[in-house]
Structure formats: structure tokens, C-alpha cells
Design goal:
The complex is a heterodimer of chains A (199) and B (423). Chain A has 199 residues and is mostly helical. Helices cover 75% and strands 0% of the residues of chain A. In chain A, helix 1 runs antiparallel to helix 2 and helix 2 packs parallel to helix 6. Chain A starts with a helix and ends with a helix. The C terminus of chain A is likely disordered. The chains are: A mainly alpha (199), B mainly alpha (423).
């Protein structure tokens, strides 16, 4: 399916940003943990904020890239039913199964935001400590900004699930084998990857 | 209870991803059992399922494996294994098993191992005249060693959830790992003789020595990790970061690693890790729902009405875990079943380290067990052979693993002598 140019640009920018977040957050986690071992062993003192910060990074990282992982087919499924169906049947099944998926994710999006909003009076200790040592005062960022990751991630995943259903409509109805077709999101991300590998 | 499994099975067969199936079935069950207002707790449970320091071992060990892979370590391991056993009849099958064993000392994950080694070794084996389905099955089952030979993500998770010493669990995995490798090697050479697989010529002495020296740094990693944890230089979680640092250093020493490959590995690892962590977060939703409904207690009661004979309970437990292992990924099984497992461990009075080894072996072997073991699907996809053919070849191989499992479950000495000696 051909997407209008502006939309296609937005998608490709979105994927580039996510890929950057994925790579950079992973690099930062590795750096912090190595620094942690190093400072305890060589400098004789632990970084007290290291563990906490890594956990928060891991949460944001995981929930942000979930949708992209879904579109790239990283999620394992064991469906026997799709294998028995025609292309049309496969698409209908996919569209029907999207209903409980989106319902569930919507529930998590809403309740997740509700949950995060309850923490406006609790700040993030690790960032307060780092900010305090650098600038002499705590940052005061509240911990809801960590917990909202669940909500944001679920909302993004709804978009990916919807995009998957819509973009697989064309190829399946034309009778092409879906396994050789990629959704537009995937094509864009693969194109970006290919560009990256050349560079 | 029954409602949960009906929904779960229904969603799973219709092709919804396992992770989402867990979450949806758990949530649906929450509403069906009249606890709908507890749904507000779900996002919190999901976060709690990820917000654990030890879970950082998942992306980190995956990253270490990926870096070793692009950094040329995998090639060197295969080359080294060829130098050791390549000259035997059907040499490449032995090479595959030995490579898996060595690779297991670097990666902590069976799926990563199956895809890394499978893409190199399955084509090589079939080029040597072995049936491709056999090659795929061999890689799938050999990959089981990944989480058994230290380091192991699965054992770290088990240790943290159950409060068992991770260092001791790591050591306890050495003997079963060697046991599986030996069993598979024996089968491979019997099979090679029976089917007349071709012989390749022996490498000359100088080349074998060179291969050993070139691979040595990679093979040292498990030792570094065990020593580091034992002496308290780093925690098991930090050991994963050390493994990454080590992979970086030898990758740059071997000069196969560059910044472009490093960056791509970081991104790819994050995507895979996110999808695994999503399963753990969904598993903790189900675990929360189960706990509300006191499912662990009910299952324990049910088993006790059948038997109170420790060996029989152990057998039932093994079958149960093996079945779960076919559908679910090891870490989520541990999250789901830990309350039940700990009850049974006390009930049958087994040493915690031995019990942990048995459980981990169980769930990991489940990953290669037909009809739905995920490792079989991975190697079938790599090889292009239909999964049914791979399954047929895998049955005797899985049988060997189960025999090793039975020995570990019945003879405490096998898993315990190393931890007892060194800790």
C-alpha cells in the first residue's frame, strides 16, 4: 500500500528516533553499569544512583520500542489457525484478533496514565541526587514520568497493531503470500537499516 | 481456572503473540472472576514485572552474545571446534555440538544461540551431506546448553526469584551441560556411522594450535564470570555488563568489530530484549491474577490428593514444567510458577540448588520439545525445512536431554558436588 508522502515522512522520522533511543539507552545502561563496577573496585565507592537509573532506563527503553518490535515480528506466536486459512481468512482473523489486543492495550494506556498521575508528590531519588551534586539543588522531577512509560508504550503499540492490520489488507487481498510482503512501517524501517549498514 | 486456560488456548491458536495472549487472558480472567476493579493494578504489575535490577541481565547478555557474533567470536569458536573434532566421521555434527557448548559459555540464552549458530552451521552440515532437517534439529537441541552452562539468564532469574545462590546454580549447571554435550556427541557419531556421513581431513597440528590460541580469549569468559561472582568483585547482574565489556574488548582486538556494527547490535538487542521483557511483564499480570485466586495453593492441594510420594511429585512437576516449556519462554514460566515451585521444593525436601538446576533444565529442554518447542521453529526457519521434519529428527535428541534431566533429579551428587566443593 502506498502511503501519502507526508505520512511516510512522519513514519520514517518516528522510526529513526526510536532506533536512536534504542541504541543510545542501551549504550548508556552499559556505560553506567561498567562505571559502577569500576568505581566500586578501583575508586572504593559505589555510585548510589546507578542501579535505580538503569532500572528506569530499562523501563522506558522497553515500552518505547515495543511497538517497533511488534511491527518487526519480534513477538513470538504459535498460531496454528492462520496456517489453515486462505489469505482472505488470514486477514479477517488478524482483524478480529486485533480487537482484544487493542482493547487490552487501551485499558493499560488509560489505567497506566491514571496510575502515573498519582505520584505527583514523589520525586526521582537518583536524578535528585545527581542534580544535587551538580547544581546544589534537587531536580524535583516526579516519578510519574517513569511510570507513564507503560501508558505511552501501550498507546504506541495500538498504532502499530492498527497499522499492521491496515497495511496487510492490500497484499493479502491481492492473493500475495504475506510472509514475503512487509507492511509499510517495516519497509521503511528496513530501508533505514539498509542505509545505516551502508554508512 | 478452567476459563483462563480456555481463553489462553483460544487466543494462542488464533495466532496472537504469546505475550499478548498472557496479558489478555489474565485481564479477561480478572473480570470473569469478579475482580474487575483490580484492573487498576495491572499497569503497576506490568511495571513491577520489568522494574527489577536483575532483569538488566537480559539485554546485557543478549548484547554480549550479539557482539561476540558480529565481533567474529562465533566464527572462531566454530573453527576451534573443527580443529578439535572436525576430522571424525560426520565431523560437522560434532563440531556443532561442541560449538554450542562453548557458545553457551558466552551467551546466556538458548534462542540467541540457536539463531547465531544455526545460520552458520546448518548450511555447513547440509553441505557435508547430512540431512538438513537433522542439522536443524541438532542445533535446536544443542542450544539447550546455552542456559545450562554458565552464564545463564534463566539461572539468574531463578536465583533471584527463589533466593538461591546464583554462583552455586551456575556451578551446578556445569555437569548437566557436559552430560548433554556428551550424550549428543555419542548420538551424533553413532548416527554418522549408521548413515555413512562423509569424513573431512584432519587439520594439521600447527593450525589446530593456532585455532586454540585465537579462540582462548572467548573461552575464558565463563571462568571470568564465575571467579568474579565468587570473589564478590561484581554481582551476577553486573557480570552481564562485564561480559559486554569483555566482548567489546576482544571484538576490537580481533578487529571484526567496528562502531557501525556495535551501534546496529545495540539497536537489535534492544528490540529483542523489549519483546522478552514484555513477556515477563505480561507473565507478572497472570501471576498476580493467579495469586489473587490462590491458584498455587489449589495446584499443590490437587497434587497432594494424587500422591505424597516425593519421587512421584517430582515426576509430575517435571512433566508439568516440560509442558509449559513448550509454550512459554523460560523466564515467564519461572515468574508464573515460582510460588508453586517453592511449595514443592519444601514438600519433597530437595536441596534448593539441585531443585533449581532441575527446574531450569526442565523449562529449557521444553524449548526444544516437540510439537511446539520454540527452538525447533527457529532452526526450521533458518534451514527452510518444514518443522515437522525437524521435529522427527529432534525426538531422539530431546530423549537424551530428558535422560540427563532424570539423572540430575535422581542423583544429588551430580549437580551438587561442584558448588559444595567451591563455595
Amino acid at each position: 500500500m502506498k502511503l501519502p508522502a507526508p505520512l511516510s515522512r512522519v513514519i520514517s522520522a518516528y522510526i529513526s528516533v526510536l532506533r536512536f533511543v534504542a541504541g543510545a539507552s542501551m549504550a548508556v545502561i552499559v556505560a553506567i553499569m561498567i562505571a559502577q563496577v569500576w568505581s566500586r573496585y578501583a575508586m572504593g565507592g559505589s555510585l548510589i544512583w546507578a542501579e535505580e537509573l538503569c532500572r528506569y532506563l530499562l523501563m522506558w527503553q522497553t515500552f518505547l520500542v515495543l511497538g517497533l518490535a511488534y511491527s518487526k515480528g519480534e513477538f513470538v506466536s504459535l498460531g496454528f489457525l492462520p496456517g489453515l486459512l486462505s489469505n482472505r481468512g488470514k486477514w479477517i482473523l488478524k482483524a478480529i484478533s486485533a480487537v482484544p489486543i487493542i482493547g487490552f492495550l487501551a485499558l493499560i494506556t488509560v489505567y497506566g496514565a491514571d496510575y502515573a498521575s498519582r505520584f505527583s508528590n514523589q520525586t526521582i531519588p537518583a536524578l535528585d541526587f545527581i542534580w544535587g551534586s551538580l547544581f546544589g539543588r534537587p531536580l524535583g522531577l516526579h516519578i510519574g514520568y517513569v511510570y507513564i512509560s507503560v501508558s505511552v508504550g501501550s498507546a504506541l503499540m495500538i498504532l502499530h497493531v492498527t497499522a499492521d492490520v491496515i497495511t496487510s489488507f492490500g497484499p493479502l487481498m491481492r492473493g500475495a503470500d504475506h510472509s514475503s510482503q512487509h507492511s509499510d512501517v517495516e519497509n521503511t524501517s528496513n530501508a533505514i537499516e539498509a542505509r545505516g549498514e551502508q554508512g | 481456572m478452567a476459563a483462563f486456560f480456555v481463553i489462553f488456548a483460544g487466543l494462542l491458536t488464533s495466532g496472537i503473540a504469546i505475550a499478548l495472549t498472557l496479558g489478555i487472558a489474565g485481564t479477561a480472567y480478572l473480570y470473569l472472576s469478579g475482580n474487575g476493579m483490580m484492573a487498576l493494578m495491572l499497569p503497576q504489575r506490568m511495571m513491577a514485572g520489568i522494574d527489577q535490577f536483575v532483569l538488566l541481565t537480559i539485554p546485557l547478555f543478549l548484547l554480549a552474545g550479539a557482539l561476540m557474533n558480529v565481533g567474529g567470536v562465533t566464527d572462531r569458536i566454530v573453527h576451534f571446534a573443527r580443529a578439535m573434532v572436525g576430522h571424525r566421521r560426520g565431523g560437522m555434527s560434532s563440531v556443532s555440538i561442541l560449538s554450542s557448548g562453548f557458545f553457551a559459555g558466552i551467551s546466556g540464552s538458548a534462542a540467541a544461540e540457536a539463531s547465531a549458530l544455526g545460520s552458520i552451521l546448518i548450511p555447513t552440515m547440509s553441505k557435508q551431506g547430512m540431512p538438513t532437517a537433522y542439522a536443524a534439529a541438532l542445533i535446536a537441541v544443542s542450544s539447550v546448553m546455552g542456559p545450562i552452562i554458565p552464564p545463564s539468564i534463566t539461572m539468574i532469574i531463578y536465583g533471584v526469584l527463589s533466593g538461591t545462590s546464583i554462583g552455586q546454580l551456575f556451578l551446578a549447571g556445569v555437569v548437566p551441560g557436559i552430560g548433554i554435550a556428551t550424550g549428543l556427541l555419542l548420538y551424533a557419531s553413532w548416527r554418522a556411522k549408521r548413515d555413512g556421513f562423509p569424513v573431512t581431513e584432519r587439520m594439521i597440528g600447527r593450525d589446530r594450535w593456532k585455532a586454540t590460541v585465537r579462540t582462548l580469549p572467548a573461552l575464558l569468559l565463563p571462568a571470568i564470570i564465575l571467579v568474579g561472582i565468587k570473589t564478590g568483585i561484581f554481582t551476577p547482574t553486573e557480570a552481564a555488563a562485564v561480559a559486554v565489556a569483555y566482548a567489546l574488548v576482544i571484538g576490537f582486538i580481533y578487529r571484526d568489530l567496528n562502531f557501525r556494527r556495535l551501534w546496529e547490535s545495540l539497536i537489535a538487542t534492544t528490540l529483542v530484549s523489549a519483546s522478552i521483557l514484555f513477556i515477563t511483564s505480561m507473565a507478572s499480570i497472570v501471576s498476580f491474577v493467579f495469586t489473587l485466586e490462590q491458584v498455587p495453593q489449589h495446584i499443590a492441594d490437587l497434587v497432594l490428593t494424587i500422591t505424597d510420594e516425593p519421587l512421584l511429585i517430582l515426576l509430575l512437576l517435571n512433566i508439568f514444567l516440560l509442558l509449559l516449556g513448550m509454550f512459554l519462554e523460560p523466564i515467564s514460566i519461572l515468574i508464573l510458577t515460582m510460588p508453586i515451585l517453592l511449595k514443592f521444593q519444601v514438600l519433597i525436601g530437595m536441596d534448593p540448588v539441585q531443585f533449581g538446576t532441575v527446574v531450569v533444565l526442565n523449562v529449557v529442554i521444553g524449548m526444544a520439545t516437540p510439537p511446539v518447542g520454540i527452538l525447533l521453529f527457529i532452526t526450521s526457519a533458518i534451514s527452510g525445512e518444514p518443522v515437522t521434519k525437524v521435529i522427527r529428527e529432534a525426538i531422539p535428541l530431546v530423549g537424551i536431554c530428558i535422560a540427563v534431566l532424570a539423572m540430575i533429579a535422581l542423583v544429588p551428587f551430580l549437580s551438587l558436588f561442584l558448588p559444595k566443593m567451591l563455595f
